[in-house]
Design goal:
Blueprint: H1 3-6, E1 11-14, H2 24-33, E2 38-44, H3 56-67, E3 72-78, H4 83-91, E4 96-100, H5 107-116, E5 120-125, H6 132-135, E6 143-147, H7 162-172, E7 178-182, H8 189-196, E8 200-203, H9 205-208, H10 213-223
Parallel strand pairs: 1-8, 2-3, 3-4, 4-5, 5-6, 6-7, 7-8
The chain binds D-xylitol-5-phosphate and zinc ion.
The site of D-xylitol-5-phosphate has 22 residues, from strand 2, strand 8 and helix 9.
Length: 225
């Protein structure tokens, strides 16, 4: 199955990094029951980003409950040597891997490594990264991630400078390549990012740090419908 088979046009992707890990299964059940099918999974190595976040052990614990309802796990690798982790992630239940272009010399060969393992592929761009320089390489991926925060932590404010960058990325890429946005997405910023051209909207604290994660997820879906 390709990435385009998973998406329903515009998707809100709950970001597991913002969940309460003492209640992870319960919170995932809430958002899956509310209709979420693409779950964002942030892997930080303590080098490319300051924190060490979550990895294959957590992925293996949740992949059955996500896959049995037809969901997918979209892994965002905030790490210095992404390809090193692809095989273990694929074997642990990852459906796609997104790596940062800032740490890779030959984007095409890293994309190939992921494809050989049957993974969907995204490339991620930090707020300061030049878009034109990577637009050509991004034509062969499933989606391009425009960061709207400096990566590392959930709960940061959306950088409005991301909006023209999303629009530029959208105009540089073929229609089949989705544009994803990650960081500070809430009911106010989600429609702005959607209007700029993003169709995969990652939301961490706006889903999991609310009293009712299911209601918060549905509110975001309605905000971009
Ligand atoms: C942080 C991660 C994000 C994070 C988003 O760098 O890449 O996916 O969980 O969290 P919010 O939506 O709270 O900004
Ligand atoms: Zn992320």
């Amino acid at each position: 199955m390709s990435w385009s088979d998973w998406t329903r046009g515009t998707e809100i992707e709950p970001s597991i990094y913002a969940a309460d890990f003492a209640r992870l299964g319960e919170q995932l059940d809430e958002v899956l029951s509310a209709g979420a099918r693409i779950l964002h999974f942030d892997i930080g190595d303590g080098h490319f980003v300051p924190p060490v976040t979550i990895g294959p052990v957590v992925l293996r614990s949740i992949e059955v409950m996500v896959h049995e309802v037809g969901g997918v796990l979209d892994c965002h690798l905030m790490v210095e040597n992404p390809a090193r982790h692809f095989r273990e992630l694929a074997e642990s239940g990852a459906d796609s891997v997104t790596f940062h272009v800032e740490v890779v010399d030959d984007i095409a060969s890293v994309v190939d490594e992921a494809r050989l393992l049957g993974l969907g592929v995204g490339i991620a761009l930090n707020p300061g990264t030049d878009l034109d320089a990577v637009a050509e390489a991004a034509r062969d991926v499933d989606f391009a991630l425009c960061m709207s925060i400096d990566p590392g932590y959930s709960g940061q404010a959306f950088m409005t400078e991301a909006l023209p960058r999303i629009a530029q990325l959208r105009s540089l890429l073929p229609e089949a390549v989705s544009v994803q946005v990650d960081g500070g997405i809430n009911a106010d910023t989600a429609p702005q990012a959607r209007a700029a051209g993003a169709n995969l909207l990652v939301a961490g604290s706006a889903v999991f740090c609310q009293d009712n994660a299911a209601a918060a997820y549905r509110e975001l879906v309605q905000a971009v419908s």
